[in-house]
Write a structure and sequence with these properties.
- There is one protein chain.
- The protein is an alpha/beta fold.
- The chain folds into two domains: about 250 residues, Aldolase class I (TIM Barrel); about 70 residues, no CATH class.
- Helix content is about 35%, strand content about 15%.
- The protein is built from 14 helices and eleven strands.
- The strands form two sheets. The chain has an eight-stranded parallel beta sheet. Strands 7-11-10 form a three-stranded antiparallel beta sheet.
- Strand 4, helix 4 and strand 5 form a beta-alpha-beta unit.
- Helix 1 packs parallel to helix 2, helix 2 runs parallel beside helix 3 and helix 5 packs parallel to helix 7.
- The longest helix is centred in the first third of the chain and has 20 residues.
């Protein structure tokens, strides 16, 4: 039976797509006693048949990455996937991960209302990503009513997180979103005993201490893991992140239909100026994206970023990216983050 007690340290490495957190990073984090997370977002982008048959390419690649992560972990920690509700392959990839023996499924970019059904009959831990106590309460009630079960844990994500955000653009840009610790406390209260992990702007052991004091079981951290040797991103992607300052961060509109936090790149600047970059080939990867009107193809932009193409890439990152300026290893980072636990 899979449980959170299988973690030596309650640290989740946040899922980052496309290709930033795959089996290499996830396995290394699990090997240090944490929860390593593989992002399922167009995970098969390097498969030979990806552009012709993306669904099969994604499932094949996901199986490979889960197997790779498991081997690297040495049986320690937990291996999870992060699956976005907004993606058209969401259900198929969750089912595939379950069949491959994944330990947990973390799901956001929409409310994962059917996640319990997709994992029924397994002992896989399931967790929604929410940005308010109200959302946690609503989802918990809906799961209990429709599926007769509760989440195994919640990831409560604040407005300083990287990637897609569960807030309006106005809330984020005008500072109207509640601070993470406030949202966390609400989430803990509404979770009614279900473990809660805090995410978004969690950077060091002091941040972790504050989250634990506010009632969190643990934390989820993503951007800091990009600077590790084991991160699956290209060296070009890592260099862009390492050189970025706080002034390089912006809130952008994503074809997913949600605001996102990432770097100011030539692509994003041109889009803000009203330019459009129509998809050359659409694989219908996002439910909410209309290829006839979308300002750019998020799939292509994220793939370009993976390879370090700053001109055409979309580089998602958290609000603390300016503090990430030195390469490290997963082992060293985990030792730093868990220093207080180790003292105990």
């Amino acid at each position: 039976m899979k449980t959170l007690d299988m973690l030596d340290y309650p640290i989740i490495q946040g899922g980052m797509g496309i290709g930033i957190s795959l089996g290499g990073l996830a396995g290394a984090v699990a090997a240090e006693g944490g929860m390593g997370v593989i992002s399922t977002a167009n995970i098969g982008f390097r498969e030979a048949d990806f552009w012709d048959d993306p669904r099969e390419a994604d499932k094949r690649a996901l199986e490979k990455e889960i197997r790779r992560a498991r081997k690297i972990s040495g049986g320690r920690g937990l291996i999870a996937i992060n699956a976005m509700v907004a993606t058209t392959g969401f259900a198929d990839l969750v089912r595939k991960a379950v069949s491959c023996g994944i330990d947990a499924v973390i799901s956001g970019a929409g409310l994962p209302l059917e996640l319990p059904e997709l994992t029924r009959g397994s002992d896989v831990l399931i967790a929604p990503v929410v940005s308010s106590g109200k959302a946690a309460k609503t989802l918990k009630k809906l799961w209990e009513k429709r599926h007769g079960r509760k989440p195994d844990f919640f990831v409560v994500e604040g407005s300083q997180a990287g990637g897609h955000l569960g807030f309006t653009r106005e809330e984020v840009e005008q500072g109207k979103a509640e601070p993470l610790l406030h949202i966390l406390q609400e989430g803990v209260e509404e979770a009614e005993g279900i473990p809660v992990f805090a995410a978004g702007s969690v950077f060091d052991s002091e941040d972790i201490r504050k989250c634990l004091a506010a009632g969190a079981r643990g934390v989820q951290i993503a951007t800091r893991f990009i600077a590790t040797e084991e991160c699956d991103a290209s060296s070009g992607f890592k260099e862009v992140i390492l050189k970025a300052g706080s002034e390089d961060v912006t809130i952008l509109e994503s074809p997913v239909g949600m605001p996102g936090r990432g770097l100011k790149t030539p692509l994003i600047q041109k889009v803000k100026e009203g330019m459009r970059f129509a998809p050359k080939k659409c694989i219908a990867c996002i439910h909410t994206c209309d290829p006839k009107t979308t300002p750019y193809c998020i799939n292509k932009a994220l793939i370009e970023a993976f390879y370090g193409n700053k001109e055409e890439g979309l580089f998602f990152c958290g609000g603390n990216v300016g503090r990430v300026n030195q390469k490290t290893t997963v082992k060293a980072l985990m030792e730093e983050l868990t220093s207080e636990w180790r003292k105990g």
